[in-house]
């Protein structure tokens, strides 16, 4: 028996689960890709890479795959209802199908799983169902090996390449394991590979001055039902025209108390606790030993995802603002203490809401109907295995996504373009409290929800890559500021970014290069052809074939569209054809060039220009890729904008 096989046998005797790695299985210590943590983003990375032929080792600290989706999130946090990317779409469809086939289309379970008309109701599900769907997704891939119960403890590096990852059984640091891979993906919520790799990262908030972000640093926000000024009202009108789920309300910066100073604080965490009112599935809530009603009455309690299927709700509180800070860079002993503190507060608050005479009778009655669900987290005392780490380390990579990437420049109708866009992010900039305290009737310090100020952004590939090494990719803790992070930190977005990362890993192997050496042009095209919506449009549906649809996704990063409407079926003009043609053959334009292109396109669209016929196109752009017409009249047919984009894509030399 070789050393590694003996090690696995020993772990089995200790009761440490190793999933598909067992004493009787073939053992490998080298892989094409190692993915750290089976979060939804990590699973999307691993599955896509495996489907593209890579050998993948998927690590997970706990015995349960799926991250927060499998630990009580209960809802898809997305403002976009359409198809997004293949694996995300597959998982969402599988969850819906589970409720339809298990209970029937007219069942209350299936109805509860459907997207609601408004609010945070865009498809709901139970944690146990999400875990099952995600686990089955992984186990269907023969190229994925799952290793549970391990955490990274050391990374070896030679020059710009990571060469070896050292692991240890969680809670048993004297059980080392070494793995080698061509590429590494940090898909943890904590960014735990970043310090081990020796790459730059950030914890906390940038100052307002660092990137000139209006909402950066220390900030207090005041809620308002109406726009505070005419500029905000006009921006809201533009936002309301987007094909997105809309949320009401505005927020105003409280001055001078909002100093904009940077610090090391991150936004609050909490458990996403699953509760049920089903008497047959409900556990009674007992009074905690350290019950402190005076403390508990200070905690916020009113954020609930409802209904979940099978008479359940998702409780998104309480938050302990302050104690959570120790979690980010703490060891796992410290992190467990922080988690325990939050869980004790959660159970204490639930008992308080059910029993304390200071709570109104209506509220006591509501919470009194609920208890922990017997069928959730059955091997962990019905407590989720993970809690909601909203923000930890953030990579400081080759591009830093800022608040400006989600904002409209003066006079613009679309957020900034990036030719290396590999995903889009449409959630509003949403940050929970960072420190305790308010100013008058303001929200907690640091809390903000910029519903109307946030516009769909493009996520550049550069934001996934550290500057110091070439074979590490970071699909979850991407390179962004604290403010921008609030619009990125959602599972649908991470799943799309993760799948794009999986494609990048495959492309790196196919072209015998590193992740940093991948030709972004080829990656972007592969993603668009794979029906991943790497740039947002109101009127492009990646789930169906559409003239110019693939090309629109590619060219959006090059500034071909000054707004969010592609208008692929509208007639193209000669003026537009001339402008688009000048940039179509440029491999990867700089961001500034893409922004200039949007202005030029906008000017061309406003010109009085003849419609673009086939004959005119051949005069402007040379021989057409379309079949030669046999009818002379066909040469006078007008090309649509989609036709023109397909023409441009067909003649691209890369």
Unreliable stretches: 1-19, 22-26
The class by helix and strand makeup works out as: alpha+beta
Tally of individual helices: 19
Query: Distance between the terminal alpha carbons, to the nearest Å?
Result: 51 Å
State Rg: 26 Å
Helical residues, percent: 25-40%
What does this structure look like?
By secondary structure, the chain is an alpha+beta fold. It has 19 helices and 20 strands. It has helices at residues 3-14, 40-51, 86-103, 108-113, 127-139, 193-197, 208-211, 230-240, 293-296, 332-355, 361-368, 482-488, 491-510, 520-529, 549-556, 574-584, 591-606, 614-621, 641-650; strands at residues 30-36, 56-60, 144-148, 150-158, 161-169, 172-186, 201-202, 221-224, 250-253, 273-276, 282-283, 304-308, 312-315, 371-373, 394-395, 421-425, 429-431, 448-450, 457-460, 472-473. Strands 1, 2, 3, 4, 5, 6 and 20 form a seven-stranded mixed sheet that branches. A hairpin with a 2-residue loop joins strand 4 (150-158) and strand 5. Helix 16 runs antiparallel to helix 17. It is globular and about 85 Å long. The protein starts with a helix and ends with a helix.
């Amino acid at each position: 028996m070789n050393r590694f096989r003996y090690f696995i046998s020993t772990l089995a005797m200790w009761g440490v689960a190793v999933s598909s790695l067992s004493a009787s299985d073939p053992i490998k210590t080298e892989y094409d890709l190692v993915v750290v943590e089976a979060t939804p983003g990590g699973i999307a990375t691993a599955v896509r890479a495996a489907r593209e032929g890579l050998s993948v080792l998927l690590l997970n600290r706990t015995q349960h795959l799926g991250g927060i989706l499998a630990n009580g999130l209960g809802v898809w946090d997305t403002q976009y209802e359409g198809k997004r990317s293949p694996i995300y779409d597959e998982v969402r469809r599988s969850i819906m199908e589970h409720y339809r086939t298990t209970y029937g289309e007219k069942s209350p379970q299936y109805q509860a799983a459907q997207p609601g008309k408004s609010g945070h109701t865009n498809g709901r599900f139970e944690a146990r169902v999400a875990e099952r769907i995600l686990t089955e997704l992984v186990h269907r891939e023969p190229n994925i090996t799952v290793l549970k119960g391990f955490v990274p403890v050391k990374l070896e590096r030679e020059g710009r390449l990571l060469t070896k990852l050292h692991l240890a059984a969680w809670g048993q640091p004297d059980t080392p394991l070494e793995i080698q891979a061509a590429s590494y993906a940090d898909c943890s919520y904590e960014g735990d590979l970043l310090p081990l790799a020796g790459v730059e990262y950030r914890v906390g908030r940038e100052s307002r001055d660092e990137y000139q972000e209006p909402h950066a640093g220390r900030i207090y926000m005041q809620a308002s039902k109406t726009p505070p000024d005419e500029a905000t009202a006009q921006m809201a009108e533009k936002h309301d025209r987007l094909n997105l789920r809309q949320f009401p309300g505005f927020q105003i910066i409280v001055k001078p108390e909002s100093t904009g100073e940077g610090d090391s604080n991150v936004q609050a965490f909490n458990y996403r606790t699953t509760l049920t009112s089903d008497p047959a599935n409900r556990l009674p809530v007992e009074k905690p030993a350290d019950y402190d009603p005076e403390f508990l009455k200070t905690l916020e309690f009113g954020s609930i995802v409802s209904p979940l299927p099978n008479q359940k709700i998702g409780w998104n509180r309480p938050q302990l603002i302050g104690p959570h800070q120790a979690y980010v860079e703490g060891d796992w002993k410290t992190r467990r203490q922080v988690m325990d503190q939050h869980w004790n507060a959660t159970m204490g608050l639930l008992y308080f809401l059910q029993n304390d005479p200071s709570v109104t009778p209506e509220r006591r009655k509501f919470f009194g109907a609920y208890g922990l669900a017997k069928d959730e987290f059955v091997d962990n005392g019905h407590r989720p295995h993970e809690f909601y780490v909203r923000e930890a380390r953030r990579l400081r990579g080759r591009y830093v996504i800022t608040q400006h990437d989600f904002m409209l420049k003066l006079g613009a109708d679309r957020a900034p373009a990036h030719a290396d866009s590999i995903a889009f992010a449409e959630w509003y900039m949403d940050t929970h409290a960072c420190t305790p305290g308010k100013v008058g009737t303001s929200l907690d310090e640091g809390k903000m929800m910029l519903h109307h100020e946030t516009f769909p952004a493009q996520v550049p590939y550069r934001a996934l890559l550290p500057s110091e090494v070439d074979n590490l990719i970071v699909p979850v803790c991407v390179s962004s500021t604290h403010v921008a992070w609030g619009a990125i930190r959602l599972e649908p977005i991470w799943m799309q970014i993760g799948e794009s990362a999986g494609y990048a890993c495959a492309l790196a192997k196919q072209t015998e290069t590193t992740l940093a050496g991948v030709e972004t042009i080829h990656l972007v095209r592969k993603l668009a052809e794979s029906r991943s919506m790497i740039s947002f449009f109101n009127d492009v549906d990646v789930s169906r074939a559409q003239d110019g649809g693939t090309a629109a996704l590619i060219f959006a990063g090059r500034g071909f569209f000054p707004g969010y409407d592609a208008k692929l079926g509208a007639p193209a003009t000669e003026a537009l054809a001339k402008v688009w043609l000048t940039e179509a053959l440029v491999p990867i334009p700089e961001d500034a060039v893409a922004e200039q292109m949007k202005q030029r396109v906008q000017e061309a669209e406003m010109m009085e220009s003849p419609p673009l016929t086939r004959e005119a196109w051949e005069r402007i752009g040379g021989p057409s890729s379309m079949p030669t017409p046999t009818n002379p009249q066909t040469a006078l047919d007008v090309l649509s904008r989609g036709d023109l984009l397909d023409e441009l894509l067909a003649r691209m030399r890369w």
